[in-house]
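queue> pop job 88
queue> type: inverse folding (structure -> sequence)
queue> payload:
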């Protein structure tokens, strides 16, 4: 997972930072979930904020449990909100 995270985030300049975020958020488990959020995947991306219109909770969960899709969305989030989306740093 570390190499995959670097592949997505090194071009943004946040490769090492996002490795630390993934370690903190999910322990590098692509199927991590916190139902209280609810947040899913490597970067614990929040349903309701980042779900597509009409997308069910479980469809979003399955989509975010795919590490490639989770990291693709993570890059979009980083570009829109910066590292603040993960509490300002890791």
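queue> result:
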């Amino acid at each position: 997972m570390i190499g995959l995270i670097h592949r997505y985030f090194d071009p943004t300049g946040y490769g090492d930072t996002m490795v630390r975020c993934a370690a903190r958020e999910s322990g590098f488990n692509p199927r991590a979930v916190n139902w209280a959020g609810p947040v899913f995947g490597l970067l614990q991306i929040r349903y309701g904020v980042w779900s597509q219109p009409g997308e069910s909770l479980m469809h979003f969960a399955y989509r975010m449990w795919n590490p490639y899709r989770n990291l693709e969305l993570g890059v979009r989030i980083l570009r829109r909100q910066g590292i603040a989306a993960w509490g300002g740093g890791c």
